[in-house]
Amino acid sequence: MSKRVAFIIPVYNRPQEVRELLASMVACGSHSEEWEVVIVEDGSSESSEGVVAEYSARLPIKYVTQPNGGPSSARNFGARQTSAEMLVFLDSDTTLSPAYLDTVLATDAPFWGGADRASADFSVMQRAVSYAMTSPLTTGGIRGGGEKMDKFYPRSFNMGVARSLFEAVGGFDEGMRYGEDVDFSYRITRTGTRAILLRGAEVCHKRRTNLCGFFRQVAHSGEARIVLTKRHPGTLKIVHLLPAAFTAGSVVCLILAILWCGWWLLPIGIVALAWLFDALLREKSLPVALMAIPACFTQLYGYGFGFLKGLFCRFL
After folding, report:
1. How far is 3 from 1, CA to CA, in rounded Å?
2. Which CATH fold would you assign to the domain 5-210?
């Protein structure tokens, strides 16, 4: 009998994260008659096969491998391994909230995304990075599922789409390395299908655990925005320009502070204090709030740098 929902998880050298994700699925306690898990090993040198074997008696898991082709290729390959009516895409560095499976199995929405948040057992750095990526004060609220500065476009770390829609748009574009999930969401939206934020389908998302890796990640997202703008005219919004404007403005303030008066650094200091107090209110932790300041600067400067670099390379 065909399963109604398939959870497709591309994996690249992350067996421990796969173990944590599968453990969270077991903890949800939902019956598995209607769903299955498809783990796609994308040319990893550190196999997750042993981890999958540990959970094969408790979860309906299908483990498949392919030569390394990137996340888009792995997701498309995983979709071909199942006949499920609904395809749910998860990143391997996520874990599910207790109500996740029941929420997903209960919905009949053809296209949805879920929010992400930090878990209580995350490190200080992980919680700070999560704050930077989900706070509306860094434009991250569009990912966190709360206050949003743009229309909601599901991301592939936590996204559900009906198979009919997935096939209608041809799946993920395997020629894109970054921004491929936003491109996919844009193409789904053009079919006339409205994406919804599925409350209750939250994941805890372990993002980059050091600022250098985080900077590279968001810089790639900034560059991808230029590609997405060329592919989908009219999708560039003010919110996408804010990190670049903040980056350029910070440079101007720094130059003026050096050449003229140190008070020009005051605007940057005020923004940093706003992050500090907001993170303290949200996270209830002073160490996390203090670390949120460099994490937020990294998020905005990284995205802004990538955006400006992409703009220069592709247009100028």
Report:
1. 6
2. Spore Coat Polysaccharide Biosynthesis Protein SpsA; Chain A (3.90.550)
Rounded to whole angstroms, how far apart are CA atoms 251 and 136? 22
Cα separation, 101 vs 111, whole angstroms: 16
Amino acid making up residue 51: V
d(C-alpha 156, C-alpha 271), whole Å: 30
Query: Which two tokens mark 275?
Result: 């992050």
What whole-number distance in Å separates Cα of residue 254 and Cα of residue 257? 5
- The span from the CA of 188 to the CA of 257, in Å, is 47
pLDDT digits (tens, 9 = 90+) for 292-306: 999 999 999 999 999
CA–CA distance, 122 with 128 (Å, rounded to integer): 9
CA distances from 48 to 41, 57, 67 (A): 7, 16, 15
Q: What is the pLDDT of residues 141-191, one digit of tens each?
A: 544 444 444 578 999 999 999 999 999 999 999 999 899 999 999 999 999
Mean predicted lDDT score pLDDT of the chain: 91
What gap in Å lies between CA 254 and CA 196, rounded to an integer? 41
Residue 149 and residue 239 in contact, taking contact as beta carbons nearer than 8 Å = yes
Closest by Cα among 53, 37, 38, 45 to 14 = 45
221 phi and psi, to 5 degrees? -65, -40
Name which of 161, 160, 178, 177 is nearest 169 in CA terms: 161
Distance CA 240, CA 223 (A): 11
Structure tokens at 147: 């206050």
Residue 243, pLDDT > 60, answer yes
Q: Which of 32-36, 260-264, 298-302 has the highest mean pLDDT?
A: 298-302
All CATH 3.90.550.10 domain ranges of the chain, comma separated, are: 5-210
pLDDT band at residue 32 under the 50/70/90 scheme = confident
